[in-house]
Amino acid sequence: MAINPKLEDKATDRLFQAILSLKNREECYQFFEDVCTISELKAMAQRMEVARMLQAGIKYDDIVEQTGASTATISRVKRCLNYGADGYKTVLARLDER
């Protein structure tokens, strides 16, 4: 899939290169603590968990109960899983391989 031209620019390229340069989980924690607010980081982590649960076939009510995510967040993640750029699917498949 091609890169979305609305997202692509030099600053975003540098951000992604910075992320790709991280060598381990500790470096990820250090970098993302500096780059994101705690709320932003928790929101991204929650979306990943919602994506994992949706892909596993878990029902909305159970996802809400277990993650605290709103139904709007769950719907958005589901839409991305079904019609998005396949980013969630790529990383979830790689995590399953481990």
Q: What is the terminal-to-terminal distance?
A: 24 Å
Question: Total strand count, please?
Answer: 0
Low-confidence runs (pLDDT<50, min 5 residues)? none
Helix fraction, binned, reads over 70%
CATH architectural type of the largest domain: Orthogonal Bundle
Largest sheet: none
User: What name goes with the CATH superfamily of the largest domain?
Assistant: TrpR-like
Q: Based on CA inertia axes, which overall geometry fits?
A: globular
How many individual domains?
2
Helix/strand structural class: mainly alpha
Series of H and E elements: HHHHHH
Fold-level CATH name of the largest domain: Trp Operon Repressor, Chain A
Identify the CATH class of the largest domain: Mainly Alpha
The radius of gyration is: 15 Å
Look at the structure and give the mean pLDDT.
Answer: 96
Strand content: under 5%
- Number of helices in the DSSP assignment: 6
How would you name the oligomeric state of the polypeptide chains in this document?
A: single chain
Write the layout of secondary structure elements.
Blueprint: H1 10-21, H2 25-35, H3 38-55, H4 60-67, H5 71-83, H6 87-97
Helix pairs in contact: 3-5
Question: What does this molecule look like?
Answer:
With 98 residues, the chain is mostly helical. The protein folds into two domains: 7-36, no CATH class; 39-98, Trp Operon Repressor, Chain A. The protein has helices at residues 10-21, 25-35, 38-55, 60-67, 71-83, 87-97. Helix 3 (38-55) packs across helix 5.
